[in-house]
Amino acid sequence: MITNHQKIEFGEVTLIEKVSIKPPFRLSFNFPDEACFIYFDKGSTQIKAPYEQKEVHSKEAVLLRCGTYFSELLPGLNEESYTILVFHLPKKVIREIYQEHFPVSAQAEQESFIRKVDPSSVLEEFINGIQSYFHNRSMLSDELLKLKIQELILLLQKTGNTTSLRKLFNETFSPVEVNLKQVVHSHIFTDCTVSDLAELCNMSLSTFNRQFRKVFDDSPSNYLKNKRLDKAKELLLHSSFSIGEIAFKTCFYDAAHLSNSFKDKFGCSPSDYRKNSNE
């Protein structure tokens, strides 16, 4: 549940948002034409992108390139709420500020969607400055916000070891054509559901199911289950993990869920399979 939501506008565009959230809550982002810088002032989570997922903790930030993302905000042992700052970077605004420095490639050179920005005194000072404007809105102007965008871009250059503006903009704004097969293979052993995979592919569930069958000649749920069971079988042979640990690593709810599914496919329980294989 969102408990507080404040915005700072740049012309007709929402540039900065400060959001307080009481978990559980699902954050979904679809940025077809903008990048986004997100700072987690309070709370930790895992952000999932088409080809990757990254852990983010309090006082850390991420730069998300144009694309689709989601994150499940869950109650933590020490924190009962989340506070995040979202800094939108629309292409048209960046182009207005940087003009001839902005052109980006028609296709991305690399396909990473999430760039982690580790905690630093520079980042903390920048965030503190942004936070102060929510309490002193009379100080805000479009010209000041342009300067804040430039300050953020400079910060991203320095923290990312990127000396060239053009390189930074290419890494952030150049489009990545999402490949369904690559999305699926990137998340087979994560807790992504079929609906989550469809979202990361920016497809409706019905379209995703139809396209999935064309690619894999199987239904998504059956394909994922079989791949996870094959991985569980491999771990039973080549690791000392317990059945419960293997269930966790292969995205089954618990040991009983894994055991029932394993027996349905292979005709014996995981423990019996391991025992018989070691004899």
Automatic annotation (TrEMBL):
<keyword id="KW-0804">Transcription</keyword>
<dbReference type="InterPro" id="IPR009057">
    <property type="entry name" value="Homeodomain-like_sf"/>
</dbReference>
<dbReference type="Pfam" id="PF12833">
    <property type="entry name" value="HTH_18"/>
</dbReference>
<dbReference type="GO" id="GO:0043565">
    <property type="term" value="F:sequence-specific DNA binding"/>
</dbReference>
<dbReference type="GO" id="GO:0003700">
    <property type="term" value="F:DNA-binding transcription factor activity"/>
</dbReference>
<keyword id="KW-0805">Transcription regulation</keyword>
<dbReference type="InterPro" id="IPR054015">
    <property type="entry name" value="ExsA-like_N"/>
</dbReference>
<dbReference type="Pfam" id="PF22200">
    <property type="entry name" value="ExsA_N"/>
</dbReference>
<feature type="domain" description="HTH araC/xylS-type">
    <location>
        <begin position="178"/>
        <end position="276"/>
    </location>
</feature>
<keyword id="KW-0238">DNA-binding</keyword>
<protein>
    <submittedName>
        <fullName>Transcriptional regulator, AraC family</fullName>
    </submittedName>
</protein>
<dbReference type="InterPro" id="IPR018060">
    <property type="entry name" value="HTH_AraC"/>
</dbReference>
